[in-house]
Amino acid sequence: MSTFAPPVQRLITELGKLPGIGGRTAQRLAFHLLRASEEDALALADAIREVKSRIGLCEVCFNLADGPRCRICSDERRDAAVVCVVEEPSDIIPIERTHEFHGRYHVLGGALSPIDGVDPEDLRIAELYRRVTGEPEEGRDPIREVVLATNPTTTGEATALHIAEQLREKAPQVTVTRLASGLPVGADLEYADELTLGRALAGRRALS
Amino acid sequence: MRVVRLSLRNFRSYESADVELGAGLTVVTGRNGAGKTNLLDALYFGCTGRSARTTNDRELVRFGQKVTRVEVETEADDGPHRLSVGFEAGQPKRLTADGVRVERLLDVPGRPLVSVFLPDRLELVKGTPSLRRAHVDQVVAALWPARTTTRRGYAQALAQRNALLTRVRDGAVSPTSLAAWDRELARHGIALMADRAAAIDAVAERFGAIAADLGLDGDPRVAYRPRSKATDADGLVAELEERRTSDLERGFSGHGPHRDDLALTRDGRELRAYGSQGQQRLALLALLLAEREAIAATRDAVPVMLLDDVMSELDRERRGRLVELLRGVGQSVVTTTDLEHVPGGDGADVRRLRVEDGEVRADDLREQP
């Protein structure tokens, strides 16, 4: 039996479905919204509605987009010859923050995980091959390099290995690279975890 | 790092006990069935959160009681630590380290390594390879704590590959991504094989000498028996490819380090099949002692050795040799029905405990002439 009127309970239930929000936090948020001015509360509702109705996926790279193409794919200054492959749209944000990457992206929508029933067909891998092997759009360079930036987890590594192998076959002219694993910059060696440090050691380079 | 004190409430045959351990050797005497083994198991339980004898924790609660609790106080370089394990039937175990609740005791500060010799553990010599693999992986973890991630990575990749094999077999997906999983499995697999080989290498050189010391004749040896002959990831990938058809038929991976074994031999013949019970026991004891030496030589942590009733089957000379080994380094707890069976057991550096009527008392040797 619920203590609250059904509409309040419904709001709490819906908020509780959000990641990282437990029952108590959901309740707190619900009461906050109840106390808030109508204007503020409805602004949130509108924002949710707008995002769901206007934001779709970019037809080229499957990043989030408010039109047929995302901002990066519509930006003519970006290098169309280099494509960085990521698992989720949220993975683009940290890479963009570096200002080091001037190419474009391709969002897979996840990583291979047979246990969860995620196979190559469930990801936007075929679309990537089409993009790499197809004719470039007018005035743009053909794709020269694919950077695999899937997560360094078992599923992310297998996904990268799968794509790399298929690309070698389908597009041997394209260079396939993988993000390096190693030490965080500015960090103390003594605080590095063993796995990261182990990878960093395995991938060490001669100082020229 | 050493265990200073053990306290238990309603653990197996005990209502309660508070026991101080010696810095080196502790000898627990008592008649058969007095509860000597239970005391060792309590120490194991308090240090690891698991029983050395049963996977059914309900058996650990004293008959007629609901809750059992074991506390272990340790002394490490950085000061004292306190571990506790509480169990109530039907509830998740409550593990704490220095008063803070933890998921597992495996990686908390102040947790001593423990190595235990119980009659039940003979399965390690006689039983299925999976027990020996798990044991080798524990030795790897004790020698190089950071390398536990290798085994976890391998297990994850194996589970994924097996899931994929089943899905391909059932026609749910095409096998195109199998090659990627072969490679991912091989990467972890080669690392796991290297870890196991290195661990057994460190143990093997010591095993022969200790086994001979304890009276196991016939050139006793311990050797790693990897399933794969591969020396690098490419080699393992090739082996996996060769077996792909049969893997697909069965829906699981039939090849790789998850099929490895550890061989204990005497004159080239496996003790598992050809050894007598006595030889198997000596081999197990030698293996545990060799591992302890290897761990002591690699890092600043000597496992606390728990030995249940080993003296009865050794002759006087071998008993003396074992006690010498135990007194040499680290902490150990030995149970016996008769203090006479532990040469030097009346020494000033030895802590003596007596188990009687469900209680543990310090034995100050008053009755000795």
UniProtKB/TrEMBL annotation, chain A:
GO molecular function, one term: zinc ion binding
Toprim domain location: 81-184
GO biological process: DNA recombination; DNA repair
Record InterPro entries: DNA_Rcmb_RecR, Rcmb_RecR, Rcmb_RecR_Znf, TOPRIM_dom, TOPRIM_RecR
Keywords: DNA damage, DNA recombination, DNA repair, Metal-binding, Zinc, Zinc-finger
PROSITE patterns referenced in this protein's UniProt entry, alphabetically: RECR (PS01300), TOPRIM (PS50880)
Annotated zinc fingers (C4-type), start-end: 58-73
Physiological role: May play a role in DNA repair. It seems to be involved in an RecBC-independent recombinational process of DNA repair. It may act with RecF and RecO.
NCBIfam families according to UniProt: recR (TIGR00615)
Family: Belongs to the RecR family.
Protein's recorded name: Recombination protein RecR
Species of provenance: Conexibacter arvalis
Automatic annotation (TrEMBL), chain B:
GO BP annotations, alphabetical order: DNA replication; DNA synthesis involved in DNA repair; double-strand break repair; SOS response
InterPro entries, A to Z: DNA-binding_RecF, DNA-binding_RecF_CS, P-loop_NTPase, Rad50/SbcC_AAA, RecF_2
Source organism, top-level taxon: Bacteria
Gene for this chain: recF
Main subcellular location of this protein, as a coarse class: cytoplasm
Protein keywords: ATP-binding, Cytoplasm, DNA damage, DNA repair, DNA replication, DNA-binding, Nucleotide-binding, SOS response
GO molecular function: ATP binding; ATP hydrolysis activity; single-stranded DNA binding
Protein name stated in the entry: DNA replication and repair protein RecF
Localization per Swiss-Prot or TrEMBL: Cytoplasm
Gene Ontology CC annotation, any one: cytoplasm
PANTHER family: DNA REPLICATION AND REPAIR PROTEIN RECF (PTHR32182)
Family as reported in the entry's similarity comment: Belongs to the RecF family.
Binding site for ATP: 30-37
Pfam families in the record: AAA_23
Species whose genome carries this gene: Conexibacter arvalis
PROSITE patterns: RECF_2
Domain Rad50/SbcC-type AAA: 5-79
Cited HAMAP family: RecF
Cited function: The RecF protein is involved in DNA metabolism; it is required for DNA replication and normal SOS inducibility. RecF binds preferentially to single-stranded, linear DNA. It also seems to bind ATP.
